Amino acid sequence: MKILVTGGTGFIGSHTVVALLEEGHEVVIADNLVNSQRNVVTKIKRITGVKPFFYKVDVADKKSMRKVFSEHKFDAVIHFAGLKAVGESVQKPLLYYRNNLDSTLTLLELMKEFDVKNILFSSSATVYGTPENVPLKEEDPIGGTTNPYGTTKLIIEQILMDFVHANEGFKAVSLRYFNPIGAHPSKLLGESPNDIPNNLMPYISRVANGKLSHLNVFGDDYETPDGTGIRDYVHVLDLANGHVLALKAFSFNHAYNVYNLGTGKGTSVLELVHLYEKANKLKIPYVIGPRREGDIAASYADITKAKNELGFVPHYSVKDACRHAYLFEKKQK
Ligand code: NAD
Ligand code: UD1
User: Fold this and answer.
1) Where are the alpha helices (DSSP H) in 174-267?
2) Ligand 2 center from residue 208 Cα (angstroms)
3) Ramachandran area for residue 312 (φ above 0: left; ψ -120 to 50: alpha; else beta)
4) Residue 235, SS3?
């Protein structure tokens, strides 16, 4: 297939582009580089031997995106482009609504104009809000998001549902990622936030690398076995493969479909710290602090649907991801 990948130079996008190219798909990336670098394209070529087409473009810029659509005949779009920092979204809600919603609306309008019928969307487990039960199933209630970032995911899922309902033959699939971690074992691709990381794994990597003195554990008084928060950490290589597999959902009958992508297993903050220490033979100093506002005790996926319908089976362990994340971190300046 020929696939337009928006946000394809970002963390998950770049690994997915590699997986797509390795499967023989043709890839065109559209990214404005607001949170990634152009040299990722060369790194993708070093890994796969193929250089994807690259456009430096804001997906919300209709005129420029029309050029992209008119220069290629796409079979599908994978839509990663978006801003994703939860804290920043609370400070700058309009930026998040403008960027994430406008880019999606523009994309859908152009898909309609150019008769490109299939879209995979990067949603998030955040749409489940505060879960009543874990593991989370796709049919569990969504809503109750606690920040504008999460609300953009919820709204976009609704937009996609309405869009395919109104336009016969169009298909949309929302992939609800749990907690993506790890890096490409080549050390060429990974996650390296510019500022102090908000997410646990990149924060631990900075501590491991000596750039931060210690990890602050956000609360040890949750109702979990060791009192720290439980999440479903999925290796980004497994997640990338999940996108390749999800392309087959376009041949299913449903116009709109949703899949959880995680591992189905929960890991606590302290368990992750210890796995990281074991995987890399080092110590991560940590201090137990107060809870972070908006955090939930436990979130992990039921991945039965993705397994049965797409053949999605994660292959990498959390320990593998810890090893790969540290290999990548050590290569950063
Ligand atoms: P990322 O920031 O590394 O990648 C996003 C890419 O989109 C970046 O390269 C950025 O430059 C680009 N971008 C942003 N706005 C754009 C615009 N208007 N036009 C063109 N390009 C634009 O993030 P990621 O971790 O790879 O996440 C990819 C997607 O998955 C995002 O939509 C994110 O919300 C979603 N997601 C991520 C996680 C996670 O933990 N990483 C979890 C759930 C969902
Ligand atoms: C966060 C976002 C979520 C987003 C997801 C992926 C919040 C409230 N939620 O989820 O919307 O979809 O990232 O981008 O920000 N922790 C520490 N110390 C740290 C960092 C994290 O103890 O320095 C703990 C957290 O309390 C949590 C776990 O580690 O229990 C994972 O945190 P994080 O990596 O930020 O992911 P989420 O909170 O699941």
Assistant:
1) 200-208, 236-246
2) 18
3) beta
4) strand
Q: Which amino acid is at 158?
A: Q
pTM above 0.90, yes or no: yes
What average pLDDT does the segment 172-177 reach? 98
The CA distance from 174 to 169, in Å, is 17
**Mean pLDDT lowest among 27-41, 89-103, 193-207, 259-273:** 193-207
Is residue 163 within 8 A of residue 104, CB to CB? The reply is no
Long-range contact pairs involving 204-208 (C-beta distance under 8 Å, separation at least 24): 204/272, 204/273, 204/276, 204/284, 204/325, 205/325, 205/326, 205/328, 205/329, 206/329, 207/284, 207/285, 207/286, 208/276, 208/280, 208/282, 208/284, 208/326, 208/329
In whole angstroms, give the CA distance from residue 267 to residue 298.
Answer: 9
Kindly state if the Cβ of 152 falls inside 6 Å of ligand 1.
no
Comparing CA positions, the residue from 115, 97, 69, 113 lying closest to residue 159 is 97
- 222 is known as an active-site residue: no
**Mapping DSSP to helix (H, G, I), strand (E, B) and coil, where does residue 56 land?**
strand
**Nearest alpha carbon to residue 177 among 251, 132, 238:** 238
Alpha-carbon distance of 262 to 38, in angstroms, equals 29
Expressed in angstroms and rounded, the spacing between residue 82 Cα and the centre of ligand 1 is: 4
